[in-house]
Amino acid sequence: MKIKSASFLTSATGLRDCPRGDLPEFAMIGRSNVGKSSLINMLTGRRGLAKISATPGKTRLLNFFDIDTAATARAGKWRLVDLPGYGYAKVAQAQRADFNEAVADYIEQRENLLCVFVLIDSRLEPQRIDIDFIQWLGERDMPHALILTKTDKQSPSATRANVDRIQQSLLAWRAELPPVFLSSSETNAGRAEILRFIEETMR
Ligand code: GTP
Ligand code: MG
Q: Model's pTM, two decimal places?
């Protein structure tokens, strides 16, 4: 899948002000600072498309990006959605609850949402908040896949060991495992695989 163009469409505070759901959507979620915005830039090949910050909790809105893929692919236009990061303690409690609810509404009710990518830092042991969130998606029959980010920061064997640990945590409560992708926004690792998965999901 070749990306012809990618552009910022709009931001929303919740389901109410989301753009019309007329294109297939793929959403990125994960703990603050895990690399959601960087991954969107890496996948689209547009460095400044999604705002990246060294300060966690930067993305507080649902940000929609229009993607147009080359005519060679059957799939034409689709959307990437950068969701607010969860688990950022410094955001005021009330505001955080607000955003979690907005994200929950979006995931539960957005009919054109085809898949939620859950981003997990490849260097961290399975975190309760990630496992709980993946479980929450499973309970709602929401299709999802995992993306382990920042793999350039450690050895492939260390990443592999963490994939195993995460899968073991999930197998404690369900039989089927979601697809897992390994990515690096520094080296572009995982780009082809993730784009192929998106293309196949749209078929
Ligand atoms: P919030 O919007 O705050 O929730 O963060 P985010 O998940 O969008 O993370 P963001 O893409 O802003 O990246 C956070 C930090 O991690 C930035 O300093 C990035 O440069 C860095 N980063 C992201 N992805 C990678 C990666 O694959 N490799 C390395 N080495 N650094 C990365
Ligand atoms: Mg972000």
A: 0.92
Q: For the chain, where are the alpha helices, taking DSSP H only?
A: 36-44, 93-109, 128-139, 156-171, 191-202
Residue with token string 């089927």: 176
Nearest to 20 by CA among 76, 64, 74: 64
SS3 assignment, position 195: helix
Which domains can be identified in the chain, with CATH numbers? 3-201 (3.40.50.300)
50: its two tokens: 């999604």
Give the gyration radius of the chain's Cα atoms: 16
Q: Give all strands of the β-sheet with 144-149 in edge-to-edge order.
A: 3-12, 62-69, 77-82, 25-30, 113-121, 144-149, 180-182
Tens digit of each residue's pLDDT (9 = 90 or more) over 37-89: 999 999 999 988 988 766 665 557 899 999 998 765 555 899 999 998 776 54
Nearest ligand atom owner, CA of 43 = 1
Residues whose beta carbon lies within 6 Å of some atom of ligand 1: 30, 32-38, 52-54, 56-59, 85, 149-150, 152-153, 184-186
